[in-house]
Amino acid sequence: MVTFLGGFATTSELVIVSNDIAGAINVTSAAAAIGSASGAYASGDARLFAVDNGTASGLFLFTYSAADATVSAAELALLGTATATPASAAADYVFVARYGCAINDTA
Q1: DSSP string of 46-64?
Q2: In what order do the strands lie in the sheet with 76-82?
């Protein structure tokens, strides 16, 4: 969990930003709240970022596009918004490995 702007490890698979975004949750406001990692991301990196505005929470997929530490709006895609969810914690997220399928598998 990040309580300040940036400074998280590039190896973190899920980063939860605890400071509230002012206003709507979108790629621009999320990128501003997330800031930069402690080092540069590598080609092919993808991570999840969770942000909130004190009323709702949003989950974003980050996909590397520049060899730097900055998480930009262009590198974020909103996966979903949970209304009436003023904040989230690591325990709110469950990751399940799915064996025997490709990443693009629709089954």
Answers
A1: EEEEEEE-SS-EEEEEEE-
A2: 14-16, 46-52, 57-63, 76-82
Residue-range domain boundaries for the chain: 14-92
CB-neighbour burial class of residue 11 (10 A; exposed 0-12, middle 13-18, buried 19+): exposed
Q: In whole angstroms, give the CA distance from residue 48 to residue 63.
A: 9
* DSSP tag of 91: G
CB neighbour list of residue 28: distance below 8 Å, 6 or more residues apart: 73
pLDDT in tens, the chain (107 residues): 665 577 899 999 999 999 999 999 999 999 999 999 999 999 989 999 999 999 999 999 999 998 899 999 999 999 999 999 999 999 998 887 766 555 555 55
Closest to 79 measured CA to CA, from 54, 47, 101: 47
How many CB atoms are closer than 10 A to CB 7? 12
